[in-house]
Amino acid sequence: QVKLVESGGGLVQAGDSLRLSCTASEGTFGDPTMGWFRQGGGKRREFVAAIDRSGEFKNYANSVKGRFIISRINGANTMYLQMDNLKPEDTGVYYCAQSQFRSVTKDRTDYPYWGQGTTVTVSS
């Protein structure tokens, strides 16, 4: 099974940008959909974005549409989340995850493999 590692988090101000990275330290991305989730204080882990193997199909939470772009480079087993125009409500720990399916599902229970998370803090 895959082991995932996130990086790129930090403390920024509202309106700033960050690019998160996810790599497979072991295993490969392979065929399944990959996704990003986040968890803020007092909240459950919530869906952010997902991308299928080809990159043709993407899914975004309504709260990040038009601001975030998910991408992946399969040969490098690398996934990115470009986050622009960050808002305080984007604050949280961001997790990279691999789905058990090839559809761009939003359900966290469809993602059995997770990284340890990278923290994003957006101040107002």
- Structural class computed from helices and strand pairing: mainly beta
List low-confidence stretches: none
Number of helical segments with 4 or more residues: 0
Strand content: over 45%
Helix content: under 10%
Shape: globular
Helix-strand string: EEEEEEEEEEE
Question: Got a strand count?
Answer: 11
Rg measurement, Å: 13 Å
Quick one: biggest sheet?
7 strands, mixed
Arithmetic mean of pLDDT: 97
Distance from N terminus to C terminus (CA atoms, Å) equals 39 Å
Would you mind describing this structure in some detail?
With 124 residues, this protein is mostly beta strands. It contains no helices and eleven strands. The protein has strands spanning 3-7, 10-13, 18-26, 34-39, 46-51, 58-60, 68-73, 78-83, 92-98, 113-114, 118-123.
Which descriptors apply to this entry?
124 residues; mainly beta; 11 strands; single chain; seven-stranded mixed β-sheet
Q: Which SSEs are present, and which pair or pack?
A:
Elements: E1 3-7, E2 10-13, E3 18-26, E4 34-39, E5 46-51, E6 58-60, E7 68-73, E8 78-83, E9 92-98, E10 113-114, E11 118-123
Parallel strand pairs: 2-11
Antiparallel strand pairs: 1-3, 3-8, 4-5, 4-9, 5-6, 7-8, 9-10, 9-11
Question: How would you summarize what this structure contains?
Answer:
Helices cover 0% and strands 48% of the residues.
